[in-house]
Amino acid sequence: MMRVPPSALLGLLVTAVFFGGAILAPWISPYSYDATVGGVWEPATAAHWLGTDGIGRDVLSRMIWGGQITIWVATAATLLSFVTGSVLGFTAAVAGGWVDQALSRFVDLVMSVPSLIFALVVLSVMPVTLPVLILVMGLLDATRVFRLARAVAVDITVMDYVEAARLRGEGWGWIIFREILPNALSPLVAEMGLRFIFMVLFISTLSFLGLGVQPPLADWGGIVKENKDGIVYGIPAALYPAVAIATLAISVNLVADWILNRTTSLKGGRGA
Q1: If one looks up domain 49-267 in CATH, what number appears?
Q2: Where along the chain do its domains lie?
Q3: Is there a contact between 130 and 73 (Cβ–Cβ < 8 Å)?
Q4: Which of 82, 100, 144, 249 is buried deepest, with most CB atoms within 10 A?
Q5: Residue 25's closest CA among 55, 63, 59?
């Protein structure tokens, strides 16, 4: 029977609550995301559990809807980065030669520019929509995944079972998806948790700078931006999304660490 340590169980529970809130946002949100329902920066009451924001919208409702956008954008961008980065990284390791050199040097070129600056430049000349945000974030982060996937795959390609597959005449697709991918899942899964949190921070930063999710929609970074002036007057509306980001980051990391430790121990047991 699989035993889940308390830290991982807590991480799973908290992560499930966040994702459940994102899925059920239309049903559990007290108000619409853009409805003005009170005065400016009202304190917490029975009608508004977290108070209201700078134009009288319910902060709890904004947090729920903002969490939905934050989580889905981060999830979509993470999946895009892993599919793109892993496939290209494995291809570079299996093909070798000029294919490996071309892909690796292109990735080095992209990574030489800080991701935030690169994204700000691209988004300043493109329409800032959710699909564009996901595409920009996912492709930029795919460079990091490429480096990891290639490094792992290079070690796997020299194994006997890969050489046996080559001698059988198997193509690149078989070697990548049937030989390399199953043996590279452990570090990739652990890295996926870290990249997801990076995506949450990335989209929040872009929104805080005005080039992320556009009003009246908002993610957690946008909610911080909307209410940052209230901090001077002791209004905590800008602190709630910051706490949500930190809590989600810790919970996902707890789950990722557990998965990494479990898969590593299982591999060790098979080799014994």
Answers
A1: 1.10.3720.10
A2: 49-267
A3: yes
A4: 82
A5: 63
